[in-house]
């Protein structure tokens, strides 16, 4: 056998394994099981040995990078690994999650080297929370990111970033136009840091999501942020909770909303807003037509603050979710806030679609005011009334309105222990008549909870399937209307019940339309007046589109075999099908227009949180 590099090879690897396996069978009394350990070095050339060794070493380096154990590798190791990729992009580092690792300065330098080689490493998400980063350690990462064009998500939450670090981040944002999301929650950034960041974000055109929750911005910082929002047109979500912005800071931010056209979500948790701050926000909501989610828990806005907001919402058409948890609404038996909110909902205003009133002492009287005209509302989808001191009288008001309400999808009544067993029974009875509610959160804290829980669940399940059937029926009527009411297709109806139907008519329509149109079609023959030899010509076929509209409507209505749609809804669907402008409409647009609203077919209605990364970042969680 020919030698390689002067070393003879007695057996191939395959032959060696086969030979050893046979040998092991002969010595079956051995304690080892499976294939024995083989020293491959004996059967490899020098060149092969080097390749295998190099492969294992590079794999180990790569694993250390993915796990974040950078202290176990050197700069030379990283260079060798990057060189081995041959300049080809690889997705192995798409997300680097280095959380709670207490990265040293040397480790940050290694990370910076990876970030600079972005054409190879292809890092998209960089999570560095809880690493106590500050000073030169974070500076070297910011400098590397200036040359990076792949990182889109940068999480620096729970570190030691202060104004200096914010200044370096500002320099990065002036040069980098790739990063879309920045999380700076729980750091030590003050008003000067807010000024550096704001100046940079006025120039930046990529950042869409910014979280500055739990820093030290204060009133001045709030004003700098407001200046930025007046000019920036790319940021869609901003979290400013727990920054002690106070009244003046919130007023400045509210003023900026009047000119801002990009912001979708604004979080102002725990900022001492008070009712005056709520008034400023209310005035801005009358003008702003882009903000869909407003979070303002724990701000002591009280009943008057809620009243200001309710008075402004008839002029707003976009606000989807309003979070006013823990705001002393209903304190000292005050019902003015609930009365205003009840009147807003009774007027069937399109906004908001979800409201969170958790931990407000609304009580029975407030609940009665809220639900006084609620049965008329068809737009509110979700209402959270957890821990609101609601008793039996309040539950009675809720139950009575639910018997007639057709819009509410989700209702939370957790931690209202005063409702008792009778309150739960009232809800169960109401849900037997309600056809829209599909999610209810309750505390079953009494002996008969199982039977009542089963009754409520049965009603919710029925409503879920009913909604599904409504959507399916609406879609079928739309398809039939598109075909039959389009004169260019020239569909022809059968001349009598025994005649074959036109191939253009949908098979699920033909058995329904024949009995409806037969009275309109003259008989084929008359046994008294027709001579024997006279050839009878069949009557002229009638185009469906030329039939009286009332008859067309009745024919199409027969597709609703289980009568799940109202007559007005069917008319809306037919009207929708006749308009050329609706041809490219989505399912959501179609159902929203014809059935008043579109509710996703999911077990729970989730209109929150707006932030797509709330499940990943604890600091942004709402509930």
Describe the model.
The protein is an alpha/beta fold. Among the domains are: 321-438, Leucine-rich repeat, LRR (right-handed beta-alpha superhelix) (Alpha-Beta Horseshoe); 467-516 and 541-603, no CATH class. It has helices spanning 13-26, 46-67, 75-84, 105-116, 118-121, 135-145, 163-175, 191-203, 218-231, 246-257, 274-285, 302-312, 336-346, 363-370, 392-402, 420-431, 449-484, 510-517, 549-557, 567-578, 587-594, and strands spanning 95-97, 125-127, 153-155, 181-183, 209-211, 237-239, 265-267, 293-295, 321-323, 354-356, 382-384, 410-412, 439-441. Strands 1-2-3-4-5-6-7-8-9-10-11-12-13 form a 13-stranded parallel sheet. Strand 3 (153-155), helix 7 and strand 4 (181-183) form a beta-alpha-beta unit. Helix 7 (163-175) runs parallel beside helix 8. The termini are far apart.
Broad CATH class of the domain at 321-438? Alpha Beta
Distance between the termini: 73 Å
The CATH superfamily of the domain at 321-438 bears the name Ribonuclease Inhibitor
Structural class: alpha/beta
- Radius of gyration using CA atoms only: 35 Å
Query: What number is the mean pLDDT?
Result: 81
Provide the CATH architecture of the domain at 321-438: Alpha-Beta Horseshoe
| Proportion of strand residues | 5-15%
* CATH fold description of the domain at 321-438: Leucine-rich repeat, LRR (right-handed beta-alpha superhelix)
By DSSP, the count of extended strands is 13
Largest sheet: 13 strands, parallel
- Principal-axes geometry comes out as globular
């Amino acid at each position: 056998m020919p030698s390689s590099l002067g070393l003879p090879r007695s057996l191939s690897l395959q032959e060696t394994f086969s030979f050893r396996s046979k040998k092991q069978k002969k010595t079956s009394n051995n304690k080892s099981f499976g294939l024995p350990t083989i020293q491959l070095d004996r059967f490899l050339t020098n060149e092969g040995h080097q390749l295998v060794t190099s492969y294992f070493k590079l794999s180990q380096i790569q694993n250390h990078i993915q796990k974040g154990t950078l202290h176990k590798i050197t700069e030379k190791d990283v260079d060798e690994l990057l060189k081995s990729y041959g300049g080809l992009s690889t997705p192995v580092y798409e997300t680097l999650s280095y959380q709670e690792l207490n990265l040293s300065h040397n480790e940050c330098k290694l990370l910076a080297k990876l970030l600079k080689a972005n054409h190879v490493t292809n890092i998209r998400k960089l999570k560095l929370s809880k690493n106590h980063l500050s000073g030169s350690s974070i500076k070297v990462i910011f400098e590397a990111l200036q040359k990076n064009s792949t990182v889109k998500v940068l999480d620096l939450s729970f570190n030691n970033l202060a104004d200096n670090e914010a200044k370096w981040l500002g320099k990065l944002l002036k040069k980098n136009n790739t990063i879309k999301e920045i999380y700076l929650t729980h750091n030590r950034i003050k008003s000067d840091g807010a000024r550096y960041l704001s100046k940079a974000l006025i120039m930046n055109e990529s950042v869409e999501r910014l979280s500055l929750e739990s820093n030290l911005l204060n009133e001045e910082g709030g004003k700098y942020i407001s200046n930025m929002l007046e000019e920036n047109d790319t940021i869609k979500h901003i979290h400013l909770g727990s920054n002690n912005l106070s009244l003046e800071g919130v007023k400045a931010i509210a003023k900026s909303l009047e000119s801002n056209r990009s912001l979708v979500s604004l979080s102002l948790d725990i900022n001492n807003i008070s009712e005056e701050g709520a008034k400023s926000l209310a005035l801005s909501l009358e003008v702003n037509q882009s903000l869909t989610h407003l979070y303002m828990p724990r701000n002591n806005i009280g009943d008057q603050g809620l009243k200001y907001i309710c008075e402004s919402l008839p002029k707003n058409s976009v606000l989807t979710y309003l979070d006013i948890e823990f705001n002393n609404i209903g304190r000292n038996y005050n019902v003015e806030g609930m009365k205003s909110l009840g009147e807003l909902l009774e007027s069937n205003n399109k906004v908001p679609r979800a409201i969170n009133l958790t931990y407000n002492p609304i009580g029975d009287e407030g609940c009665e005011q809220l639900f006084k005209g609620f049965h008329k509302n068809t737009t509110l989808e979700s209402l959270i009334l957890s821990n609101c001191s609601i008793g039996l009288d309040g539950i009675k008001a809720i139950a009575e309105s639910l018997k007639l309400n057709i819009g509410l999808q989700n209702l939370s009544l957790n931690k209202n222990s005063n409702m008792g067993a009778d309150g739960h029974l009232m809800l169960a009875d109401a849900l037997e008549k309600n056809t829209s509610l599909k999610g209810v959160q309750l505390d079953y804290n009494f002996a008969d909870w199982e039977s009542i829980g089963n009754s409520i669940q049965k009603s919710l399940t029925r409503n879920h399937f009913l909604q599904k059937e409504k959507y399916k029926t609406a879609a079928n009527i739309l398809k039939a209307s598109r075909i039959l009411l389009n004169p260019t297709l020239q569909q022809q109806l059968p001349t009598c019940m025994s005649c074959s139907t036109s191939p253009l008519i949908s098979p699920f329509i033909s058995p329904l339309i024949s009995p409806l149109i037969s009275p309109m079609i003259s008989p084929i023959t008359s046994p008294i007046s027709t001579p024997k030899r006279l050839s009878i010509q069949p009557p002229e076929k009638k185009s469906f589109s030329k039939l009286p509209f009332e008859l067309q409507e009745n024919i199409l209505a027969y597709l609703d075999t289980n009568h799940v749609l109202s007559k007005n809804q069917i008319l809306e669907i037919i009207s929708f099908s006749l308009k050329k402008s609706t041809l490219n409409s989505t399912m959501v647009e179609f159902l929203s227009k014809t059935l008043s609203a579109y509710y996703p077919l999911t077990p729970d209605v989730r209109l929150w949180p707006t932030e797509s990364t709330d499940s990943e970042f604890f600091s942004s969680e709402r509930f």
